[in-house]
Amino acid sequence: MVKEVAEPERLSATSVSPDPKAPIPKQIRYIIGNEGCERFSFYGMRNILTVFLVSSLLLYLPESERARGAKDVFHTFVIGVYFFPLLGGWLADRFFGKYNTIFWLSLVYCAGQACLAMFVTNRTGFYVGLGLIALGSGGIKPCVAAFVGDQFDQTNKHRAKVVFEAFYWIINFGSFFASLLMPIFLRHLGPAVAFGVPGVLMFISTAILWLGRKQYVMVPPAPPDPHSFLRVSRDAIASGLRGQVLAAIADRKRDRIFRAHAEVRICNRGLSRACGTDRIRRARRVASARLRARANIPRKLSKACVRFCASLCCSRW
């Protein structure tokens, strides 16, 4: 049965001590097997991509331009692989959770590998396959290692070191044999088989991940933060020219606001020990007026600008 665990409900380090005899979570084997097959699939495909483009798919280009064309395709593909982790991490954290993001993007990944094997003579189909692989591979990249960490709690977290050693060992194991075998397959068995083998490994990878679905600890995605930097910035910009000007002022004054906020907190702590409530309020008003004058902060700030300042101060903390 899947465990739904919210981050705030996790046991703190002070309430539960590590158990030296705690076993490694059984579901870890599925994640490690998934990662080993996925890395074999990715590096097996990537290591023969440029050779295949020059020798087969880009034969319509003049011979002097084929290497350049292959590099353009390869580097565009790599850009996608390293851009889509931003999307995958955002989807996992905000909407679907890590397991669902990994699983569904792995299916996209499988579809991309199938396109490479089926469209070795069709440029459009082949490029579509590369795009799907970039989306799938990049999308799951930030989620898998974090998903491994989610399987531990305070009683067995000391076993995470051993697990991550095995996790990164299997990555290198799959990469090594993919780099060793795929060029041989391309040379002797042709591109359809050479791209088909990584596709089969990716399907096996997804199946292994799916087999452990009832044992994983699944942390639900975090709710949206109404005070996030982007939301506050959007509100300030949407308020028109006045809001944009005030946002710019707040940006220039954020360091002074941060220092003023720290001084007020120190002052309040000192006053709370020696003064009553009424005297604290009067002292706060006086201190606030002095600090605003020192920081040269406009007296009337829009609501959006105040939220903008608060978000910047919180980020500095």
Textual characterization of the structure:
The protein is mainly alpha-helical. The protein has 2 domains: 204 residues, Growth Hormone, Chain: A (Up-down Bundle); 88 residues, no CATH class. Helices cover 76% and strands 1% of the residues. Strands 1-2 form a two-stranded parallel sheet. Helix 1 packs antiparallel against helix 2, helix 2 runs parallel beside helix 4 and helix 8 packs across helix 10. It starts with a strand and ends with a helix. The relative contact order is 0.14. The C terminus is likely disordered.
Please render the helix and strand layout as text.
Elements: E1 3-4, H1 28-57, H2 63-96, H3 98-118, H4 123-150, H5 160-189, H6 191-211, E2 217-218, H7 229-238, H8 241-274, H9 277-295, H10 303-316
Parallel strand pairs: 1-2
Helix pairs in contact: 1-2, 1-4, 1-5, 1-6, 2-3, 2-4, 3-4, 3-6, 5-6, 7-8, 7-10, 8-9, 8-10
Question: Which structural traits does this protein have?
Answer:
2 strands; flat; disordered C terminus; 2 domains; 10 helices; 76% helix; Growth Hormone, Chain: A; 317 residues; two-stranded parallel sheet
- Give the C-alpha Rg: 27 Å
Q: Structural class of the secondary structure composition?
A: mainly alpha
Number of DSSP E strands: 2
Give the SSE string.
EHHHHHHEHHHH
Per DSSP, the total helix count is 10
Q: What percent of the residues sit in helical stretches (DSSP H or I)?
A: over 70%
Instruction: Indicate the CATH topology of the largest domain.
Output: Growth Hormone, Chain: A
Mean pLDDT: 81
CATH class of the largest domain: Mainly Alpha
- Based on the structure, what is the oligomeric state of the protein chains? single chain
Query: Judging by the overall fold, what is the CATH architecture of the largest domain?
Result: Up-down Bundle
What strand line-up does the widest sheet have? 1-2
Question: CATH homologous superfamily of the largest domain?
Answer: MFS general substrate transporter like domains
Strand % is under 5%
Q: Calculate the terminal CA-CA distance, rounded to whole Å.
A: 39 Å
Number of domains: 2
Return residue spans where pLDDT drops below 50 for at least 5 consecutive residues.
Answer: 5-14, 300-304, 312-317
Task: Tell me about the largest β-sheet.
Answer: 2 strands, parallel
